[in-house]
Here is the input.
Amino acid sequence: MVKPMVTVENLRVAFGAAEVVRGISFEIARGECLALVGESGSGKSVTARTLVGLTGGGARIAAGELAFDGQDLTALRERGWRKVRGGRIGFVLQDALVSLDPLRPVGKEIAEVLATHTGLTGAARRARVAELLASVGVPEPELRAGQLPHELSGGLRQRALIAAAIAADPELVIADEPTTALDVTVQAQVLDLLAELKSRDRSLLVISHDLAVVARLADRVAVMKDGVIVEQGPTGRVLGAPEHDYTKQLLRAIPAEHTKGTRLSATAPAPPRRPPGEVVVRAQGIGKSFGGRIAVQDVSFTLRAAETVGIVGESGSGKTTTARIALGLSAPDTGSVEVHGQSWAGLDRAARRRLRRDIQTVYQDTLAAFDPRYTVAKVLAEALSVAGVPRRSRRERSVELLELVGLSPEHLSRRPLQLSGGQRQRVAIARALAPEPAVIVCDEPVSALDVSVQAQVLDLLEDVQRETGVAYLFISHDLGVVHHACDRVLVMKDGRVVEEGPVEEVFRTPAHPYTRELVAAIPRLTAV
Amino acid sequence: MKRPGPGLWLAVAVLAVLVLAAVAPHLLSAQDPLAVDSAQTLRPPSAAHPLGTDENGRDVLARIVYGTRTSLLLGFGAIAIALVFGGLLGLAAGLGNRVVENVIMRLSDIGLAFPELLLALVVITVAGGGTANAVLAIGVANIPGYARLVRAQTLAVRRSSYVEAAHALGLPGRRVILRHVLPNAVKPVLVLATIGVGTALVAGSALSFLGLGTPPPEPEWGSMLSTARNFISRAWWYGVFPGAAITLTVISVTVVGRALRLRSEGRTSW
Amino acid sequence: MIRFIAWRLLAGAGVLWGAATLTFLVLHFTPGDPAEAVVGGEGAAPTPEVLAQITAEYGLDRPWYEQYAGHLWRIVRGDFGTSYRLHTPVTQAIGEQAWATMELALAAAVTGLVLAVAVALATAGRRRWIRGLAAGAELLVASTPAFWLGIVLLTVFSFGLRLLPATGSHGLASLVLPALALALPIAGVLGHVLREALEEVLDEPFIVSARSRGLADTTVRVRHALRHALLPLVTMSGYWVGALLGGAVITETLFTRQGIGRLLVAAVNAKDLPVVLGVVLLSALVYVLVNLVVDLLYRVVDPRLKEAA
Amino acid sequence: MTKKTLALLLTAATLLAGCGSTGASSPGGGAPKAGGTLVLGENGQEPPCLDPHGNASSDGPVATVPVADSLVWFDADGTIEPWLADSWNVSDDGLTYTFKLRHGVKFHDGAVWNAEALKLNFEHMKDPATKSPLAAAYIAPYEDSKVVDEYTLEVRLSSPYKPFLDILSQGYLGMISPKQIKEAPQTICEHPIGSGPFIFDKWTKGQSITYHRNPDYNWGPKGAKHTGPAYLDKLEIRFLAEDATRYNALASGEVDAIDFTPPQNVEDVKANPELGFLSAIRPGHPMSFWLNTSRPPFDDVKVRQALLAAVDRESIIKGVSFGQYDVAQGFVTSSTPGYAAALEGSIAYDPAKAGGLLDEAGWTGRDKDGIRTKDGKRLVAYFPIAANFPAQRMQIAVQTQAAARKIGLDIQLQTPPEQELTDRSNKGDYDMSSGLWATNTADVLWIQYSSENITTDKRRGQNVARLRDAQLDDLLERARQGENPAKLYNQAQARLLELAPAIPFYDDPRPVAYQKKVRDLTFTPAYPSPYFYDTWLEQ
Here is the structure.
């Protein structure tokens, strides 16, 4: 029998007292693609880095066996590692913007690998670099090679990074979250590229939190949780007929069209939905441009009570600008936004402040959204004071709010840093609810969260809406999420609304080509 | 996340002793720092004079202990001045309109164009030597720097999304500034200031070296040091101990300051 | 780019004018008659005729605004007037001293930078005790008054071991100790900043990916990390200039070197307004230019800023 | 050299109080050799201007005398010897001096020394444009002069001025090239041209002055050991302000000799067989703290005497000078012509007496810190000092402060800005002030204590004590008019001991240390400072 490319036997990795990888075992056969799936803190990235000897300072590594192509990696010295890294194992980190040296042309980064592992020099090397860039689908490679990371789009950066990883033609390529932070369409392309890398004698190890991504790529999947592999097997089997509860939970948590109207997290079902009420926000032909660059153009929508309107689009499509205009935080160049029939433009400061209570917001970055010095109690008290709640009753109201968002009174004394991302987003929602607003603008409310947490928050938003009849303006790049959470959706591209309508229609029968492209690109949970 | 190491505790201990020396020197030295004894000049450390005597037969230990108050004043006083005025200017620039901001920033440009010591020298030409003036000099010299720092902080905080959140909440602008902008803008500056105290202390001793510091016979580390240099070949102790006092103090202040910084940046777990 | 430079130069001119005005007013409205400074002092017995002569010659009897205008006008024409104390043109007085200070400052700057970079590169992200050692050393030198450091250096290397001359501005040997005394505290501060920056950078993903390409540690540090870590140093230019010029005053006095620093102290003591004004403007000019250069340099080190300009 | 001879030498040096012809005489014998460069480490008092007439700094002469010869030579015993003047006679009314000048003297620029040259020099000193801080005052009585013939000048004074010749022997009144005075007076400060044994080369401000030998020189003073050019090829004066630095520069051989050897190092110098030591007490007024007699508390002679008795000058001076200085016995130093040796020891340390005097003066009350009071007023004396106050004087001040405190007098040291200091001293707004005045005549007493010399808006004077005493004025005036100076100066010194206008501390020495290879390093006694005409180096 052919011996596997990688053999990991009872691997344990600990930093100080904390053991983050607790005895995992797996193999990767030649030409096979294994996916390590798990949420943050599951130890998947550490495992990947351990395979290239970059676990990090102060890490204690123990393994029954840790072999690459029959070679015992645990025995390697620094010098030996250097031959393996880049030479025989290529490594693709997540988020190419920070994984490429921002001060050096991408070409140099690739040339570096060639310089270290091949005899190529001068012109030959430059040629090879261009060749590699071309091979990963980078247009005008010579030009690109001379550019700095920030001059390239996210997709191109990721491709460049991959080019560097495969430059020395390694037998194993490890990709750690290769597609996070990429727009859905680009994500699809990169996934295809990775799929191509896999060949008869080159194996692939993909690390991801996104089962959908994995479904598209991996032959086998290993699901990690808290440093152990809870389940592993052929992709089809694991995704199709999961055995372990955690895997099931993960699968259930992924929002997509089929999850519409179902619970993503294992929480009690909510009260019945209310029918959409009167119009609370009406945006008419709003447009805004920054220094000549058009950010938003002729965007109109209406939002009714107890209704959720989604705005999808890739980065730079003008989603956030639209949100800020709706919130009255920045004034449109053209058009107007009315909340409860009052246009922001027409109001004086005092009136604006009063109106603001009716339209609140929840941010993407859960940490930056809070004054670092404030405790949850203070945060809520402040919000309540705006709502005119008398001082004495603020505390009890705060507790109510916390319970409404699924937190308990003991969180009152915590500071933002002392809360998890999910908890912070819950507090953010509580704060937004404090003035009993008619609308909450949610700007990428879940994109910074792990899938299971995301599930909880999405459910929470749903529940809150059913409780209070608040309307959501829901901004996200994740079509799955939008599909799950929204009643109607606006698809934006380059500051324009290209398509609009009930979420079902738009996603089932997309009219606009771009929408089709988007929908096509959505990774689906059916193994290839 | 790292926990405070022994170094930090040591520094805190040193500062504690210094504070004690500043408020109640008599507890640390029984001798009179002004007691001249022409017969006992430049005597090496002994039972009677643990750190020896100076060129006037005064007890070096006593002078170091009693000098603490003045020396610390040089550091803390100066930074206090710089903080208050620099802080106000910086806030004005950070919160005010373009005109205010420009005026203040151009002024601080000019201020920054003078090297600290040069500015201090100019101030002293006007005001004359002496402790109070030295403090004033160094303080003034530091104002532009702090003004810039505070302004930068203020602007950063103003742009932060929690301030936007407060606005979105419908909080009155004034309250947003008082409750969120001010505290968050000033806090990190306060922390940096602790480190600044050390630098100011050194600057102070430099003035003393030029003979512009505390007039005799009042003890002050810097002036002790600068006098001692004439006798360095005969009386090492006279120079070494005040020097050590300054260095140790500055180190301690800096260590504590850095620890506070790490903490305020949430990089330590205490 | 050109517009940027032009604009900065304009702002610089503003700063210079402000500096000139400030010093003039400050020194002019302090009590005391410069005429005394010209011929006063212990052991002097100027006759009334002499004093009258001086007052007239330097126009000290004219109203302040005339004197101010006079000063500015002459400065614009590159004439900084005549030193009260030295009876020679300020440009000459400064000219005689400028090179010595320049030499000292440059030597110190280079030494300081090299020391800082070397130590930081060698120790950043290493074992705890190594870092502790380096940090301790940096803290020590950074926390010691420059002149005390100088005295110690003198006592050990010059008076004690007789290795190096203690005085003067002649030859390289006489530059070593002063430069060191001036450089060490700076190196201490820079070293700390640099190592912190380096350690931050070394945790960056792109460093990991660099390592994952099989680069040697040194290569990673020098080729990838250092450049990033240097940025904060570049931004500290203000501190540099201040530390160097300020330190020069002390160092030159202690090592009885020639230099602007000593010239200034003497001038300040003697209320030698023209000289003080000259030195202030010079240091302000240096500050402005250095900052300009630094901004340009910054764009070289960090190309991302190019289009920001 | 054996310790014994060294000791001998030193006693000689101090006894003969810097007699020009002794000093670092060559004990091993050996004929002087020409050649070599001598480097002298000076203290920080770098003159701002090298025009002998244009500076008053104590390092003025040492820097200008090599370049500029004087009209006459002053010998340590007080006799005036010919130099650029062969002879002279004074009219009976003491108003006219007729100088017969030396022939064949040439300035470095080729200009000839003659009556016209001397006249020009006098006028240059007086000319306000010279901004002379000292010379002008020294020859204040100079009226005008008449060229009798090429080598004869007749000088007329406005009033009899006995010390005229003594003063003329000082470096501050050295002779500058008439050509330079006429054609480029503004260059004298930067580049003085005289007739001296050394030609000025270069002045690196804040650093050093260099000279080279004048090969044509053949008009050395009578006091000199040899004739013809100087032995040294080159001469460099380096300014080393830091005491420790200066001493170590000598010890480490960086320099061949140092001026103003720090007292704390003198013992080491003497102990070091490689080094020689030469010291002379500077004639003039001893280093003293003057008491402002024009306002309370020191307007009361009893208070002044009290303070004088309260201070243990012996032990203070012993301490600060590491046993090197002589305690001043009166108001002129022991090396000053007309010094009243008979009065020695009349100032005695007696705290008890001091207390008594203060009681008599009515300062009987005491406040909580034990400071005396008189009808509610504390007994306070303000002592404003400059930022660059010499460390050693500071010591004396501090110890005096302590002593005064013991008898209930509170001396407060203040460091006002330099300029406020000058203003205050001109206005007389101070109680104590420190200093000394080095000049080679007892007329220093007139300079320091005659009521004429109290500073007014019209006149800057040196009577820092602001003393007004008719009797003293009379004595001093008559003395300088020329009537039996010896006797009158004696009486004046006695009178001053009664008036106690100052606390005289020590006779200021000019202690020079040098490498043994330096031979015949001497002093100009007129204003003791190293003189290099006879000096040579043993290679």
Summary: The two ends of chain C are 7 Å apart (CA to CA). The longest helix of chain C spans residues 90-123.
